[in-house]
Amino acid sequence: MTPTKFSNLLKLFLVTAWLMGALVHILREQFQVFIQVPLNLPIALLSLMVAISSWTVLAKNRISGPAKTFTPLQSARTAALALAGSRTGSLLAGGGAGTLISYLFAPPTAANTDRIQVLAATVLTGLLLAAISLLLERICMVPDKKDDK
Question: Which InterPro entries does the record associate with it (predicted)?
């Protein structure tokens, strides 16, 4: 499994932000539909971030302890968790950023102010989740063994 590249996560973030921004703008301008943004979204992302960051601390302690490495199965499971976390954080942060930018250009109302605050929290927690997941993936990488023939 190849390590996740930051450029791929950035592309995922930008494409999702553009698509969500365009969709929210079209819905708002053409149909006067405002997307409701649940407060549960940044809370769920925060709980994922806490779980993955605690796993990262445990993984870092294991590597610096007497074991010095993971078993291949532990490494694969940890890498899969980190891969899912980085993709999830990038997608949700991108979608939140696109929606946030669209609502910044909407007329200021109390409901829009609440949406903007929730979306800003969503973008922040999504970016932090992606960053922590990238760190976890870097920690659990196993160096390739080259066969001498």
Answer: DUF3180
